[in-house]
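pasting input
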Amino acid sequence: MENGALSNIVVLDLTRVVAGPYCTAVLADLGAEVIKIEIPGKGDDSRSYGPFVNGESLYYANLNRNKHGVTLNMKVEKGKEIFRELVKKADVVVENYRPGVMDKLGLGYDNLKEVNPRIVYAAVSGFGSYGAYHKRPGYDIISQAMGGLMSISGPEGGSPTRAGNAMGDILGGLNLTIGILAALNARQMTGKGQRVDVSLVDSVVSSLETCTQRYFATNEPPKLQGNRYGHLSPYDSFKSKDGMFVIGCGNQKLFSLLCLKALNRPDLLENPMYLTNDLRCQNHKTLKAEIEKWSENLTSEEAVDVISAAGVPAAPILNLKDISENRHIAFDREMFVTVEHPIIGKMRVNGNPIKLLDAMPRIKSCAPLLGQHTEEIFGKFLGMSAEEINRCREQGIL
Amino acid sequence: MENGALSNIVVLDLTRVVAGPYCTAVLADLGAEVIKIEIPGKGDDSRSYGPFVNGESLYYANLNRNKHGVTLNMKVEKGKEIFRELVKKADVVVENYRPGVMDKLGLGYDNLKEVNPRIVYAAVSGFGSYGAYHKRPGYDIISQAMGGLMSISGPEGGSPTRAGNAMGDILGGLNLTIGILAALNARQMTGKGQRVDVSLVDSVVSSLETCTQRYFATNEPPKLQGNRYGHLSPYDSFKSKDGMFVIGCGNQKLFSLLCLKALNRPDLLENPMYLTNDLRCQNHKTLKAEIEKWSENLTSEEAVDVISAAGVPAAPILNLKDISENRHIAFDREMFVTVEHPIIGKMRVNGNPIKLLDAMPRIKSCAPLLGQHTEEIFGKFLGMSAEEINRCREQGIL
């Protein structure tokens, strides 16, 4: 499939900053025609977020590759009219305003479904469009704090720690993408679109997977436990001569290989403190000390090589330089892709992790300049002439 | 839609532990008929992971709600034959074995597409099915270490820190779900299924969003910076009398509200060190100290109340007890749902964050006991009689 798995889908993208734009980037990478609609003269807030090259935001340029960019003032009547005409030709509207903003403009789902009953209307916000807190503003840090993630992340005895990326936004964007695709599937059955409502906080809560079960089983909220996992051992980070590395020893056979073939410590295998995974979880501290006695004499690379050669999962802790140069990650899996931007020049954007083998995600174009495709898109979809577009531009509508 | 947005989809689920089961739980919550196929007498590895209630794993029970459970020995010819018959009736096969395992069984995509060209074959693994590292085993901790996430998470001056949940698994599961739904959409156009290949490491790399751009702009891998964000300030956690809370002050107007209406410190607003967001990012340390001078005299709840009342985003850091009792999260948004399990009794499982307003995700049933639906499913899909099923059971096939 030359044009991608979603090449039959047209998306009107009103989103800003991270959560929404991440979702529409995934849709665009998979072949959807994404039309990003920005405020004339200003655009997505993230156009003003650093880092910058030649005055252009890399932040924006990374998350908005593969999208068409148009400007439209949706606060004036003519702008709303143009938007409604676009909605007639589209499959999906995506927005990440605070709940209620689109309704106040007269462009909420209840309005738009009158214009096009097949439209899927997808919104992501801090707390969702209903529920006690739905009017609260939500940013990524709020979702990491209120979704419980910070309370279980961080060094033992230390403080709650957030994931260093905007993880709440990413989880929200991924869930929104699933919701859109599920609603499009439902439309095959019903002929009708519907609303998709995703919240960052819900998305973080859902990501906690089994951690919540540990609380339900004990009635004790889990304490911070650094990099180790509660139910597996040794499954943690360990000190080396030059830093840290990780071991993921998921079962008894792997523990046996670790002791016999990597550490050369058959005594550990027979030690009553470490006989079973449950015992190792209880005695993780002393076991860690035993392993570090060995690894502190080696570099991380040496330790990982020896443990891996023994058939036990182990890995270095890669930084962003490492991953961007790593053969498997950066090149074989195309997780960094070079595009040519008219102002930035050559730049590397994040690749897409969803490999459809007969319809690979493709990064075909860089992010749009503000309003770059206004003529093209409004001409193609609405039949507007260059003259008409110019007139609208003079009136501040485009 | 009484039966959910994916009620036309039948999924054969060969997955174990987290990444795959999380994906198929999302599909099941949205209405897909998910048939979990487990090894006779043993089942999913996570049936042996704690915590336990009455000997049953809450870990397994949480991630496998809403699924049908059958047993099938796919290592013997009759078992393979039964599996191929199921594939004829299914839309999707999902697995998270190490790449190559299904091919060795003669049940890889190339075999199954001969049986049913419309089948979507989705696999999630540590490093994906191709690329230099594709044979390496990958667990969540490996993906958090090699995907770059640990290198940017953790206290300033501290050590790389993983997210306290199995975040790599969750991201992988979400991307796999998107890939499946995109491939089903593509099938509407082509009439054919295809392979979906997702890796945990790719999924973590993709989640780094703009952090990689900070590296590309400076050629310096970002250092650990605790809970603050590089490009916004004050946007961080802050100490209170009884713990910590967060402030998300995303723009100049919010900073002004914070200084004037919450901290009562107009001098901060006029201080040349804090005039712009860029300056505040540079001088985040002294600004944090100024804010904590105020907040250290208040409880987290008091500080959040004052700042929120000023119109500035702020939040407590909730633990798992807090979120499970929170009105908005647990009840209004249904992020914890009670189901009745025949052995565990009443238990709370995680809700689904993808709210389709005309086809809400629903948690209709608890996780299956091992082989619970073998008769029902093999009867319904393959017309097998109770007698035939019993014979297969005696032979170790079911």
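fyi Chain B is about 40% helix and 15% strand.
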